[in-house]
Design a protein that fits this description.
The complex is a heterodimer. By secondary structure, chain A is mostly helical. In chain A, 78% of the residues lie in helices and 0% in strands. The N and C termini of chain B lie far apart (65 Å). Chain B is flat, with a radius of gyration of 20 Å. Classes of the chains: A mainly alpha, B mainly alpha.
Chain lengths: 102, 160
């Protein structure tokens, strides 16, 4: 049995690393990777509750599945948007995603 | 033993996450991300959430293999390979959607058919989740088929 505080600490560290990457980096692929790191932290945090009991754990693993599906969706949509942008501008830097402003 | 294994895999996942965020090369970032996902799934195994861990492991491995085969390998280590990349990207999107939603469907089928009086009743019921998953899988398959067909048409128009 892992102490809950340890699991929450690991989840917090992963979430913080991902958030730092999202706000600090300019490469679109690295920003997408940071988003996935954040989702990993969230899944670990959800698993804190799975340890409670088998009956409750089953439903909570379903919630974790939803988070994973959401992460896959976000990654797919982000990757396709980056790919489309790369076709027109030959760049994946998020600082250049300002075409809607003009 | 549990906490030691937990922190062993947890520290690997933290180091890999730092490497994924800190590197400037997209390929290195993706490689570190795959290592982080595998370490996180090991953490979930240690915490006895085997279902989530196997889903995470399967999804990250299949996704990384697909990206490597279609985007990285043809470009000799660089993302954005020349040639028929558009078709490859359409295949990646369709195949990954179908695989991830297929895993969800399998889980829903196993969960719905498992016997047990003490099974918890969810807010909307297991049957609702089952049909929603089938609907999602069907729409993903139709979307993938439409995208691939349309891309094939564009490719054949551009060739002459």
């Amino acid at each position: 049995m892992i102490p809950t505080s340890h699991v929450l600490l690991l989840a917090l560290v992963l979430l913080s690393i991902g958030l730092v990457g999202i706000f600090m980096r300019r490469s679109g692929m690295v920003v997408l990777a940071s988003t996935t790191v954040c989702f990993g932290g969230v899944v670990v945090a959800i698993c804190t509750l799975v340890q409670g009991g088998e009956a409750e754990g089953s439903g909570l693993q379903a919630a974790g599945m939803v988070v994973l599906a959401l992460a896959a969706g976000v990654t797919l949509v982000g990757a396709s948007a980056l790919y489309s942008f790369h076709r027109f501008r030959r760049s994946v830097s998020v600082d250049e995603h300002d075409r809607l402003r003009r | 033993m549990g906490p030691i294994l937990f922190w062993l895999f947890g520290s690997i996942s933290v180091l890999a996450a730092l490497a994924a965020v800190a590197t400037k090369r997209p390929v290195r970032s993706l490689q570190a991300l795959v290592v982080m996902m595998i370490a996180v799934s090991a953490v979930l195994f240690v915490m006895s959430a085997a279902l989530l861990a196997s889903e995470l492991l399967l999804g990250s491995l299949v996704g990384s293999v697909l990206v490597w085969m279609a985007l990285v390998r043809p470009g000799k280590g660089r993302l954005g390979a020349a040639g028929r990349t558009r078709l490859n990207v359409s295949k990646i999107l369709g195949l990954f959607s179908a695989l991830s939603l297929g895993a969800l469907l399998t889980w829903a089928v196993v969960h719905t058919t498992s016997a047990g009086a003490e099974r918890p009743e969810h807010v909307l019921g297991a049957a609702f989740g089952f049909w929603v998953t089938i609907l999602l899988l069907g729409s993903a398959a139709v979307t993938a088929w439409l995208v691939v067909t349309r891309r094939r048409g564009e490719e054949s128009q551009e060739e002459p």
